[in-house]
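Q: How do we represent a protein-ligand complex in a form that can be generated token by token?
A: Start from the inputs.
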Amino acid sequence: MAENRIEDNREGTIIRLQGGFYDVMTPQGEIRSRARGNFRKRGISPVVGDEVVLHIESETGYILEVKDRQNFLVRPPVANIDQALLVVSAAEPDFSAHLLDRFLVLIEAKEIQPIIILTKMDLLQGEAEQHVSEAIAAYRTIGYQVIETSSETLTGVESVRPLLKDKTSVLAGQSGVGKSSLLNALEPSLALETSHISKALGRGRHTTRHVTLMPLGDGLIADTPGFSNLDFPHEMELEELRWCFPEFVALQDDCKYRGCLHLNEPGCAVKQAVEAHEIMSSRYTNYGMFVEEIKNRTRRY
Ligand SMILES: Nc1nc2c(ncn2[C@@H]2O[C@H](COP(=O)(O)OP(=O)(O)OP(=O)(O)O)[C@@H](O)[C@H]2O)c(=O)[nH]1
Ligand SMILES: [Mg+2]
Ligand SMILES: [Zn+2]
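Then emit the structure tokens for the protein with zinc ion bound:
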């Protein structure tokens, strides 16, 4: 009897939430599962990426246990991520250093490895071309890996595949930047739904509606719905923000004051570097905007 029970318990990874079910990938295949009744009471809400223990009864799994998470993103809701592929388009929608910095802060705060993926390079033309290539160079100088791709011409797409090996990755980015298109370009059999962004903002704008974890390039990757309204950096303390800009961190020991927030303090090495054009002015401006947002949010409570 006891032996039977051991055979019926399996470990796996939640890859999809659908109609109240959790699809769990196990070494023996996918199992449609339900959460055990008392999870909600215990304040546990299983998400994609969670490692779980299942009890299997007539082909339905029952999640008995959610293992401790290595990390967890609230938006998109996904757990146990090794790296985030931050997807920003070179055009349509226009390249936005502001959005990119928001994503970077969010990911840096969780101590998840970010990789920047530029999409729609085929659409880049005119003045935007120089602006985007300067930005790419500047982010590389900070130390970020930046990959330039086009799912249309397939340029650069193959350089994404080796990055996925043995890792769990999440794609994150604004709606319509081409996250699902990139996955389709890497693996046409995925046949993920993609579509033009509608001009009307608001509801019904997201083509991908659920987080789904898929095997790709000898790893797992989560496609996610795009962000449309941006309310992060949420839950972040002001003190924490300055650690999310690696090029500021590299200089902060040279600031006159320990714990310098690089705002109005005298003898600030970060401000000096901005003035000397050694730090991107847009990064510093965005930092200042995030500082204000955090202050305003703190004031509200
Ligand atoms: N020209 C060009 N168009 C692209 C490229 N990548 C994606 N697109 C187009 O951009 C539109 C949006 O692409 P999606 O892949 O649906 O975007 P997404 O990021 O998955 O959007 P959500 O699922 O809503 O978050 C589609 O019309 C794609 O055909 C590209 O590299 N070049
Ligand atoms: Mg999509
Ligand atoms: Zn400073």
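The longest strand covers residues 9-18. The first helix runs from residue 2 to 8.
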